[in-house]
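Customer ticket, subject: "Can you confirm the structure for TldD/PmbA family protein?"

Message body: Hello, I'm evaluating your service for our small team and ran a test protein. I'd like someone to confirm that this is what the system normally returns, since I don't have a reference to compare against.
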Amino acid sequence: MLSPEQASDRAQDLIERARRVGADAADAVYGANSSEGIQIRLGKLEDVERSESEHMALRVFAGRRSASIGSSDLSPQALDELAARAIDMARAAPEDAYAGLAPQELLVSGHWPVLDLVDASEPSPQTLRAMAEEAEDAARAIAGVTNSDGSSASAGTGVFALATSHGFAGGYGSTSHSLSVSIVGGEGSDKQRDSAWRSAHHKADLPPAAEIGTLAGERAVARIGSGRMKSGAMPVVFDPRVAGTLLGHLIGAMSGSAIARRSSFLLDKLEDQIFAPGIAIVEEPHRPRGLRSRPFDGEGLPTVARNLVEDGRITGWLLDSASARQLGMQPTGHAARSGGGAPSVSVGNVHLAAGALSPAELMADIKDGVYVTELIGQGVNGVTGDYSRGATGLRIVDGELAGPISEFTVAGNLLSMFAQLTPANDLEWYRAINVPTVRVDGMTIAGD
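Agent reply: Thanks for trying us out. I re-ran your input and got the following:
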């Protein structure tokens, strides 16, 4: 695997090859990853994985025509052929009035922030196995646990680099460490499965393996004896591990491409009060060790901290260069690249600011409601905002959690849900999208 500096040089070299065969403009992306993982099940080694990949993608422009192509063969001859094939494809493509590189005057300049994404230590296979064993042992020690789907520990390294024909070149590296456990509790027809996992750039930021295993075991056992829920309208409380999906739907609807296609439920609502006053959703792409931290975006523009939602109102759309041109706006540094093709939109680390109430206080006045711990399916319409997903969780009766329930559906409309959303004060900081426990009033439960 190349260093970030070598990767940046390699991307610039590919740009030069494209210019020599006639490209008016071009950008090139280098990506490489290596990872090793160990999986344990019932105390025995079940799988060992080692993977390595290296890939380059080239996007070329011939006037307003463009084409993208990629290869995992990085030999000089292969890259020459890649460049020649890309320009031939571009010349045969239809014109796109919005195609082009990011505005040159907006490219990153000066020093990049220190993000601390690389852990210099590399765990051995023996260390990974010991972590997986410790986590599964802790899960299986919980009373009521009867089986295991396995425990896995992994570590990896990655490098990303981008170069453009109009003056940008840069790269950065990152490492990853993760641990997960999936466990089964109960017997016969009342078997229940649940899991726990953590991921971080630095191994030191993972909690102890036994803590993750214990959490997985306790979650599985808590689901034993699940009952059914009657249908009706009631408050729904989302556990932090699923509450972040609500922000995911918001971010998707804020994408410039969705707005330009007029396929977003947020269309024409830029000035509207979407959330309650005081609600803030914050993006921090430079958070040290953040899972989505990055010094520049997929077009070479700077990433900056901003409030996506301030005092309950959206502050603007998330724009790459193409959607910005289509909307007559400036790109916002949210372009992302993964392999070949044109940029998509992605955000940095995001969190919903914590509220004033504890989760217990948030639920205290709920006579009859549900606490959701798992969501199933993809029943969300990004155009209308209609929301309907299968769920499992716990009943809330007279302000208290009152036993597990399953096989029900939570439904509503995202605009109404956002307007009725209240965050608790239990915000934690280890996910890419960090959200505290949230309460949403007026949802519909479809059960028995």
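A couple of notes from the result: The mean pLDDT is 96. The radius of gyration is 24 Å. Feel free to reply with more questions.
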